[in-house]
Amino acid sequence: MVDVERAAARGKRGSSRVSEEGAGWSCQEIGTFQALRPNEDSFSWLTPKTLLRSRNEILAQLFGDPSNEVRRRWVAARTEQGVDPDFRIKPDLGAEYGFLVVGDTGEGDASQYAAVPGLLAIGSGTAFAVVASDVIYPTGSGNEYDDKFFRPYKDYPAPIYAIPGNHDWYDGLGGFMRVFCDAPPLAVERRGFSLSPAGLRGLFWRKPEAVDETRLAAARARRSLPGQQAAQPAPYWVIDLPGLLLVGIDTGISGTIDRDQGAWLRRVSADPRPKVLITGKPIYDRNTYHPCPIEDGGTVDEIVRDPAYNYVAAVGGDTHNYQRYPVQVGERIIQYIVSGGGGAFMHATHTIPRVDVGGVREDDFKCYPLRGDSLSFYSNLYRQRLRMPWLYLTPDEGLVLMSRHIGNTPPRPVGTGDDTDGAAGTDGSPGSPPIEAGKPVKITMRMKWAARILGGWPMPFRLPVGRTFHRWFSELSDWDTPPFFKSFLHFSVQDGVLRIRCFAATGCLPQEIDPPMEDEVAIPIGSPPAPAGG
């Protein structure tokens, strides 16, 4: 079992908040994750086939999201099959334990596998792991779980539970329910055509894909050890832990929950123990607030904020980076966390404005990658894709630009880069611009315009750069070379304290050996009650 305290201390000293090397910029040796990959294929959103298979997202926005209706059918079927009506999972654990949370994993390419070695090292000795959103891209098919779930986590010795993300719902949740709940497919409902929104949606809706049971059985064999086995009761659940409840909800495609799930959430939340919510969509993200509506009225965040329910944190996937918002709610602070950096392409952080949502101060907000590293990374990506060398911003330039724009102190000392000869550049590829150590940074007009195009500097006139052009450009881009800026969470309960640590994966060998710790928060939760009797 890894000594997490020592690993955290080493990781803190080697993080991106300390040096460019900790961010993976001076990557001289690629990590061992390359040997874990099944092939050299790279997942891409640019193919017409991928976009066509993912059309249910657009159809749900245009004609309504059927997730609530379909989820009720899945839950009714599970209830008929005799599962616990509270959908409770109860591991046999002592008073001290740990578990992992990793979000948005399933691309099956370099960016996913780059996070695996560090996750296995830090996760050694943990009781279980949870995938928080988007287990499988692009459509959650049960036929794609081998290389995107069973193979990457074959050496993780404990059970893995999950909550579905919007991409898992593009398959009608069929693949997810078959793999995680061992549930047979739902009976096909045949309806006649109508001119209603639901009828128009049905004309183009991608139907669930039949699972190849032989192929799935071969994939399951990769995680066949007794300690790895787990069957969760439903797409939403509660994990009953000593002194803590972990509550997972299913937010479908559009980020809402149905009335039955809302009633269940209120019921299980009445337990007085401290709780952590795991949700497919974050409640705070990019300095905006998404309370998650409940079908019969109210919101999920109203439940989280109610002191009677005693939530101490809410963790959501869907956005592919790490963010933490410590929100003051009455006399309590609730940690709202985005944890979607487990495998898919990285969503930019440099387009996040100065934080003030929910009364959170900018200096109390944390993100990974740092805004400056995000700006530098995307400047190099744009430089390559658009063949415009002048767009490139060094990590130091990105750091200084973002700190000037946001109005904060650079979160890393400027001038911590390593001198290189350009043989291995900032993205690990030949010919990329070298990093210069210790060079003073003076903001120039070229730097400002490069940052404007990248959405990291104010425009003198209104253009939809950051929220529109850059957002879609980044989503349609992918890369197979470090740094990847992936991350996962390690939770530990010890001596009445819940610690949440964010560890990073850059794809570079030094960060595989000692994963950087990018953030840490300690939450007092009290000691679990002594067992009755004896």
Automatic annotation (TrEMBL):
Q: Which PANTHER family match?
A: CALCINEURIN-LIKE METALLO-PHOSPHOESTERASE SUPERFAMILY PROTEIN
Identify the Gene3D superfamilies for this entry.
Answer: 3.60.21.10
Q: Which Pfam families match?
A: Metallophos (PF00149)
Renumbered residue ranges of the record's region Disordered: 1-21, 410-438
Q: Where is the Calcineurin-like phosphoesterase domain?
A: 99-177
Name the domain of life this protein comes from: Bacteria
Please report the name of this protein according to its UniProt entry.
Answer: Metallophosphoesterase
